[in-house]
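Quick one before lunch.
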Amino acid sequence: MARSAATWDPAQYLRFGNERLRPALDLLAQIPLTAPGRVVDLGCGAGNVTAILRQRFPDADIVGVDGSEPMLAKARMSAANCTFEQADFFQWQPRHKLDLIYSNAALQWVDRHTTLFPRLLSFLALGGVLAVQMPDMRATPLHQVSRQLAASAEWSQELGDAIPQPGILPVMDYWDMLRPQVASLEIWQTTYMHALQGENAVMQWATGSSLRPYLDRLSDERKSVFRQAYADAVRSHYPRRADGTTILPFHRLFIAATMAA
Ligand SMILES: C[S@@+](CC[C@H](N)C(=O)[O-])C[C@H]1O[C@@H](n2cnc3c(N)ncnc32)[C@H](O)[C@@H]1O
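Model of the S-adenosylmethionine complex:
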């Protein structure tokens, strides 16, 4: 569970807020509910998506759940008329059955999905929906470069045990696990061509997310050395285009599971 213990920096995460928001909206667009009564934003982070859930469902009771107090502090300022709870995904338990559990870019931070997903379904009311979006970038240079660096002679003593274990399962495992338990199931994958601006854009992106488990282990000085080494190693995989933009192809898995009414 080392990944779930990562410290989160809302400002760094939101630096690419527009790119990170788009899949959240695409997931929201596929939720087949008009007026759910009880909604949870699981892994709500800085609350920017919780605020959009509030706009879409003005009469719902909306609770944001997250393990990070800095993220929740930001969320409390971002999303009006919502409540927030600090909890780990595996410990959290709602007080009432829920109409919607929405989770954007959060559940990939933990493993044991074969325990977690059935547990989440068990919290849903009749006709309730579990809507999940997870990045699936394990097999890409974005993650491979950091894993290779952490395992190298220079870094393995400090970072060898920070290398994340895969959390997300092969896509068909979600089908086989969820389909027998729900009335309808939609699963889809999208590759977003995120167009990032600025110097070392991929390193900056990763600093807000996938590098966190490594950076947490390092002193400020070693953090800068690691980030620079990552920027140098990842650059050739995501070259800057002639117009200064860096394209980061980003694979995301979406799940919308609806319980029988
Ligand atoms: C990438 S952020 C996504 C935030 C938000 N859903 C969004 O779309 O902007 C992932 C969030 O998951 C939370 N998280 C990761 N592992 C967790 C765990 N085991 N329990 C609770 N929260 C966790 C982190 O604290 C972080 O705020």
